[in-house]
Records
---
Amino acid sequence: MHGNFERVSEKGGAGEEIDQGALEYGVAGEVSLRWAAAELTGVVEEARRRHDLSPVAAVALGRAMAGAVLLHRLAIKATRRLTLTVAGDGPIGRIVVEVNQEGDLRGFVGEPRLDLPASSDGRLRIADAVGKGILKVHRDIVDGSVYESQVALETGEIGLDIAHFLEQSEQTESAVLVGVLEGPEGVRAAGGMIVEVLPGANPSAIEKVEASLALDSSVSRTIERGGLEALRDRVLAGLDREVMSRHALRFRCSCDRDRLRDQLAALTAEDRAEIVDEAGELVAECAFCGARYRYAEREIAPA
Ligand SMILES: [Zn+2]
């Protein structure tokens, strides 16, 4: 695995140029609803592999990744970059996800190898891992303006917290589904869907979605079974619907050797001395993707 990190870092931290998921956007119920749906199994699996995530950490980060990409797609103003932060007081620490207009995602959790015993019914205890705190959304708009808003975490399950955020901060009534299915060999399915009620919505359209959501079936299992199409069909059952756009998603980090060197250079000489490895090189690791960059002391220290 470390061999992989090194190979990645030689390429400047960029991920592979392959698609690892898909994002769809559309309307439904005679334009009573607008929706976004994402399948990002490959993205979350790549995050799991890069950060060596435990099952609970992979699920928490994957839910946040699904939420971030959906929030980004549904933003009214064209958003260059959206950062979702879930900052609770639980043992997992901070969860941070960033998504951009190209469909690149990256993210990390404070304690990637957190091991929490499952609940008595075998579920991963995401809410206990997250704890109480805030959910924050930071948006860099294409016109150069910046928006930031936050809400208190309602449940720590992430999906319901995003719904709460949309209600409080955006004044929109939405249903948010996010899910990750973990298996012994890694992430088997990951994704989610947000359905937003538009002004003047037909009440019967809302009732139909509510009835679909009331059925207790897992988002990630639906995706595992039939991908995005199955998720769309399940949530929007009985409604006319139109897919208006489709984009590819991938895990890709924007870090590079020069930028991390600048961060190293900002440290004091004493702090730098503490991150020198056995070979006398400085090693900096990107928090977002795990890529490691090595520098000789003379590259960092002022001449
Ligand atoms: Zn990186």
Note: The domain at 257-300 is CATH 3.90.1280.10 (CBS domain Like).
---
Amino acid sequence: MGIYTNVLECYKLTDTLTYMKTKKIKNFKMNRETFPLRRKVIDLIYEAKKGGVNLPRIEVRIGEQSSAKHKNVLGCAKIKGNQMWITKDAIDLGSDILRNIVFHEIAHAVYGTQHDESCPLMCSALSEDAILNKEDCLKHLLKYQPMEK
Ligand SMILES: [Zn+2]
């Protein structure tokens, strides 16, 4: 597990937004248990690409919260660093909720998008009764994509 000095930003299930200076997700080793979990995240990134989102290669790591006090952390992204961390808890919430989390982290990781409490995709807390469907997730993510030159 590396030390990241960049400001990482986290997506929490409840509570207020936090900016982080240290990583709060501990990476799992890449093994037979972890690959299928990562596959689910990568499949959602492909789904975004197929939907018309232009994306660079994004590095995806799966892990668990580094301590109980970060138990709400579902994902983190390196702002404009094309890297994201997704927790196993987030994956266990099912693919519809996971899509909301992954698309949210894509906007941070690729576009450097900040939180916007008026946007259902980029608000700082994911609320379980406001999960976006596939089309709406895509629509909101595309909003942040810079225009083609
Ligand atoms: Zn966020």
Note: Helices lie at 34-50, 88-92, 95-111, 134-144.
---
Amino acid sequence: MKPDLRLKVLEVYAAVDVAVAAEAPRCDASGRCCRFTEYGHTLFLSQFEADLLLETAPAYTQPVSRDFCPFQAEGLCTARDSRPLGCRIYFCDASYQDKQNAITEVAVAKLKVIADEFDTGWNYAPLHVLLNAAERPSVQLSSASRESRIALDVL
Ligand code: SF4
């Protein structure tokens, strides 16, 4: 991903994190939201978000199931820093649903503007579709990610 494009997407993430924090939705830390079929939802994301996620996420095995995220381990996210918008915005707190929809709408609109600006086209699909289409299951693990991957490997 081009550095200037990455910067723009990260700015969208930062704005979303601030907007979500302002709403302070309740999280029960059940991890169910990352087990998609069990929880009854699908995580959609743009190609930008998938590219950014795969820059630092741990390696994973293809084919990826539609049922759960391959980056959840023992109920925790192993790709937290680069997790996509849906993971940043989604909470099961019923009182937050309207705000969640509004934050999502604004953020996705910003990503579409970025797509136009960089003339990339717009690819928006479920997580497993984009992970299965990725040429390599993992790209350039950072040293921190490598260490966490090693920790996972020995568990
Ligand atoms: S990237 Fe992290 S937060 Fe998002 S679905 Fe996967 S494990 Fe859950």
Note: Residues 3-154 form one domain.
